[in-house]
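Course assignment 3, question 2. Fill in each field.
Student: A.L.
Task: Predict the tertiary structure for the chain below.
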Amino acid sequence: MSQTAVKPACKHATLGQSLLQKVAQMSCVLDRPQFDRVAKFVLDPALDVPQEVLERIALLLIDTLGVAAGAATLEVGQIARDFAVEFHAASSDKHSATLLFDGRTCAVPGAAWALATQIDNLDGHDGYNPTKGHIGCALVPALFAYAGQHPQLTGRQALTALAMGYEVAARAGVALHATVSDYHTSGAWNALGVAALGAHLRRQTSDVLREALGIAEYHGPRSQMMREIANPTMLHDGSGMGALVGISSLFLAERGFTGAPAITVEREDVAHIWEDLGQDWTILRNYIKPYPICRWAHGALEGVRVLMVEQGLRAAEIERLEVATFAQSAALFPGLPKTTSEAQYSLGFALATLLVHGRIGPEHITGSGLNDPEVAGLHARITVREEPRHSARFPGGRWSDVTAILQDGRRLTSGDANARGGPEAPMPEADVRAKLGAMAGHVLSEGRIAALWDIKHRLLQPDMLFSEMADLVTPAPDR
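Answer field:
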């Protein structure tokens, strides 16, 4: 008999063998003990969260609610809430939640989806550099949606659960981008944090958690972020679907629905990402945005702010503004925006707005703010290019430098500037309070804003019920 190897009958046989090999490899790298360590952290009813972490998560929570309030009157927020009420109806009160800054009710997953979509479309919420995305945008809406079924939940318990969810989501995001070639929106991975948050609050078992994480990862919206950057729409960063998928995954798992184990949690090559869970609190490195603009623009915005503060730069003096930034920032929407979505992804528009008005608020990226002739005129004199040294620092930082050529021939240079609001350049609490007023001032009374800020401190008191905060943020806008 000939010893010559038998060739496959066709090319598809080779393809089939390759796929089988990949499946076998995938099966053998899943690590249940690795999952068990994660489950122990997630489900611990007495989870010990350091005081400084609880204080930070309280600040992030209030900041996110300010953005949620500011986005309540956006068209996309109104669409999302109406859609949730009409198409996510709950069969009974035990499955319902109240829509924040609205007052109507719908099913728990729909309430989280609507609020996350609303927040996502006013791009002023917090984020974590290594994930290249956002956590609180999905987890805060999920917390309020879940909390309606837990009337005895204290503020401190809610903050503990939220901190835990942030840590899971952060690591899921880092693990996803370490194991796939494409750059996905935040909804692809913050769905796992949402599922973990619910499992903690609902005192679930590790088996239910494992299925929930597997379902959430499998169904998470692996949408391509750069498509949205090139064509800005209401889809934004996918966090609405991340919230919906995360809660739905947990509720399905509770009913016996099974899901393939989450490889971002259990694969051996991501073990190092999870090994410091409960020891290194990434929450302390989340940034707070000074402006409701894509974070990729914030390095250049900081460069301009430095020139305005330190060298007195004013829009009327500028002949030309040259921006050197990292590749992702240079890829932001180049034209003059016609919609709020385009405005939040437009580097040139953001810079021109800051120079003309000295700040960027919701009013500058909506309505008549999109048709400001002075902003449009300055926008036409701004050029942007990629600078390799800034690209090399991404995603650890959002670096840029800006040069202003003035009408009298002078050149003002910012030097290298990183985005403000993160651990390397934190915003003072007074600035965060001012931002709260700027975000929510057109929809909430000053009294309600002050009460929201005040409750940040009281959340840490042992006996305060979380429902007190919910009562403050569920009624419709005051204005």
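Instructor remarks: The chain has 22 helices and six strands. The CA atoms of residues 212 and 314 lie 53 Å apart.
Grade: pending
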